Each structure stands twice: as C-alpha cells, then as structure tokens.
Fold:
Amino acid sequence: MGNKMKTNRAAAKRFKLTGSGRVKRSKAYHGHFFTSKSPKRLRNLRKSGMVAPADTARAKKMLGAG
Structure:
C-alpha cells in the first residue's frame, strides 16, 4: 500500500491546470502602489498568464498532476 502524494498548498493557491494540461498563473505586480501604474498596465495585469515551459514540470509536480 503506497503513500499518497500531498498537494503543495502554496502552489494550489497560485496555479490552476487548464484542460489541455498547461499551468495557469496570475500576473505579479498587482497588489499595491496602483497610483504609479497606468490604467492600461493595471488592466493587462488582471489577465492570467501561463507558467513558462521550463517551470511547468515543477509546478505540475507540486499540484500532484505530474
């Protein structure tokens, strides 16, 4: 009887797997100091991004999907 892998809870709060198996993430620099950032920049920071291919395997392993 093998042990189950535990999901890394920090990663689970930051990443989400897409249907095609890629890892979705939120953009950085959208926490505070909004007055110094342009509305266009803030609008683009609201969109989600993808984890870089070099980091995808590590992120999936932390999520328990790889």
